[in-house]
Design a protein that fits this description.
alpha/beta; 16 helices; eight-stranded parallel beta barrel; single chain
């Protein structure tokens, strides 16, 4: 290997690096980074590697004789991994527009069309307030805006980070995630106020905080999945500077930061992108129009997404991304946007939310995914709920097999869907790794999509909650807590919005009532999603964690998290998955330990096949030293 050798001349008219190479979707000019290459036995350069895995074949003197760039996929990722994102001048991708004026600090400036772009010779300055007037209309924000100080309907502000940050922990294996909603995590509901809780999370044993989406949305209250400026941070939470401060504070404590991002739809309020270009393609995901990932002009949309990914991971230093509902991507081309996001985010890790039970995300794309099947198996077995998508769950047999195999629906018939669903995972060195499945006792979805937003802790006893936690935390899967579960929070987490368009609030309210009335809920039992009271009631009550049953649950969580860290169980193999009426026994083996988790999932005292009897909803964890491996030769 000859590292850091720079190719000075090629036959395609570009010099590497040091020469500008193309334009990104947000107007920045890009440069490829220095390349490393191997020498063939004859001394010719045989293979060049870059961070984005662009591959070139070279002959003598550094002349390209063949190029295999893995199609447009890798070219886009190269753009996303390239140098400074500061635009050389104000410009905007706008193939739909006939005429655009730059509105800058109160003055209008004509823009010149250059293909699908409109450009100026004006260089942005920090603090500039600007927008674009399309075909003589009112000025609107930049789709690539990094700051919206006046909200989604206001002008943009030119914002630059003081210096790029780097991720601190890009390996998902061994992480303990903690999902939180900034607006309800603390009384103040800001990123700065959340910093004050980082020491608590570190002491608890949390290694990574997963922020629900922070991109700008309409109004003051939202889960975050209605974002419309994918490169910006909501001013409600403190804007981009507050996110930088939060990341710096988390990293200083050794806590990684994972950002939940939404690339399958734009929010219904303030989505002006289609005035500029073909950001959506018609059709509906159920939350908004389908994002244009494979139609006419979709290259520009993909670049827009990949530049957001690059910004979060390479400028802000985000350690991992959680991709919302990747099954809603209209993405059947040769190169999946999920793969492109993975490459653009590297070395940061990527976690997909998907209900497809498709091993391709893990085994082919090499990313992680949320695992609802393990959640459903645990929840149904403990709560007794078997309605809706819990229909095939509830028995200890299903629980044992799901904890062993990762998926329950791996080609089995799904009663809820009325068809067969999923395919099996293959756990081996070449296939899936168990840490690539993120597991949980609840999430924002599993709580907030219930009619009342009631947490499991509002319906289960303390021992039942601790049993669920033990099955998740003492397993080789990557665990994730949802804020407040570690003390059995008594506050709900309901669905809430505050659209600036009142008709959208009315439509959301009516839709929730329709949905839950079909399931037998009375209208008065369904919180009004647009009411401020619904949002306020969803804020955590931090004081309660010190008292009564809350304190006992909190102590159990601390003990389980400490045990998980000591056992290093993230590397364990599943060696046993036994069950009988009302009880479960799971065995996990690491290089140092054999860990056995025995749980009584009933109101009766149970006597498993070995060991002492277990009281109702009691869990026992046995740890033994692993037998030395005598099969290896000296």
């Amino acid at each position: 290997m000859v590292a850091g050798v720079r190719v000075l001349r090629t036959d395609v008219g570009n010099e590497f690096p040091g020469r500008r190479f193309g334009r990104g979707a947000c107007g920045q000019t890009n440069e490829l980074r220095a390349l490393d290459f191997d020498l063939s036995p004859s001394g010719h350069v045989a293979l060049v590697r870059s961070r984005t895995d662009i591959v070139f074949g070279f002959g003598r003197h550094g002349i390209i004789i063949a190029v295999s760039v893995r199609a447009m996929d890798k070219a886009m990722v190269a753009d996303a991994h390239a140098g400074s994102t500061k635009p050389a001048n104000y410009s905007v991708w706008a193939p739909h527009a006939d005429e655009i004026q730059l509105v800058l600090n109160g003055e209008k400036h004509p823009m010149t069309r250059a293909g699908e772009w409109f450009t100026t010779q004006i260089e942005p300055q920090r603090g500039d307030r600007y927008g674009f007037s399309i075909n003589g209309g009112d000025a609107i924000g930049d789709p690539c805006s990094r700051r919206q100080p006046d909200g989604i309907h206001g002008l943009s502000e030119h914002w630059e980070i003081d210096h790029p940050r780097s991720p601190i922990n890009t390996d998902l294996a061994g992480q303990v995630l903690y999902e939180l909603h900034v607006g309800t995590f603390t009384p103040e509901g800001t990123l700065d106020s959340a910093i004050a809780k980082l020491d608590y999370l570190s002491e608890l044993g949390i290694t990574a905080v997963e922020l629900m989406p922070v991109q700008p949305f309409g109004g003051k209250r939202n889960w975050g999945y209605d974002g419309v400026y994918w490169h910006a941070v909501s001013e409600v939470y403190g804007g981009p500077d507050a996110l930088v401060r939060f990341i710096d504070a988390a990293h200083a404590r050794g806590i990684a930061v994972v950002l939940d991002v939404v690339y399958n739809h734009f929010g219904p309020d303030g989505a002006y992108g289609n005035l500029f270009g073909p950001y959506t393609a018609g059709g509906s995901t159920g939350w908004g129009e389908v994002v244009n990932l494979q139609g006419h002009g979709s290259d520009g949309v993909r670049k827009y997404i990949l530049e957001a990914v690059r910004q979060w991971t390479q400028d802000f230093g985000i350690d991992g991304l959680r991709l919302d509902a990747v099954h809603a991507f209209d993405d059947t081309g040769a190169y999946s946007i999920t793969e492109q996001i993975r490459d653009a985010a590297a070395p940061s890790f990527v976690i997909a939310e998907t209900d497809q039970n498709d091993p391709k995300y893990i085994e082919r794309f090499g990313i992680a995914q949320w695992n609802d099947d393990i959640h459903h198996a645990i929840h149904a077995a403990v709560s007794g709920e078997t309605h809706g998508y819990y229909a095939d769950f509830g028995s200890t047999e299903v629980l044992a097999r799901t904890l062993k195999n990762g998926f329950w629906h791996d080609g089995k018939y799904s009663t809820f869907r009325g068809r067969t669903h999923g395919r099996p995972l293959t756990f081996d060195d070449e296939g899936a790794q168990r840490h690539q499945l993120v597991t949980y006792t609840t999430t924002h979805d599993q709580t907030g999509n219930r009619a009342r937003g009631d947490r499991p802790s509002m319906n289960l006893t303390g021992p039942q909650q601790v049993l669920k936690a033990a099955l998740v935390l003492i397993s080789p899967y990557t665990p994730m807590l949802f804020m407040g579960e570690e003390w059995g929070a008594s506050t709900p987490f309901a669905f809430f919005v505050d659209h600036e368009n009142l008709e959208l609030n009315d439509a959301t309210r009516a839709g929730r009532l329709r949905e839950f009335s079909r399931l037998g809920w009375a209208p008065e039992d369904v919180p009004d999603p647009a009411a401020a009271e619904t949002f306020e009631a969803s804020k955590l009550n931090w004081e309660e964690r010190h008292s009564g049953e809350h304190a006992r649950i909190a102590e159990a969580y601390r003990d389980l998290l400490a045990m998980r860290a000591q056992l290093d169980i993230a590397d364990a193999e599943v060696v046993e998955a036994a069950h009988a009426d009302g009880w479960l026994r799971m065995g996990y083996a690491t290089e140092a330990y054999v860990v056995t988790v025995v749980a009584n999932l009933s109101d009766a005292t149970r006597l498993p096949t070995d060991g002492p009897e277990l009281g109702p909803w009691e869990v026992r964890i046995d740890v033994a030293a692993a037998e030395p491996d005598t099969t290896q030769e000296d």
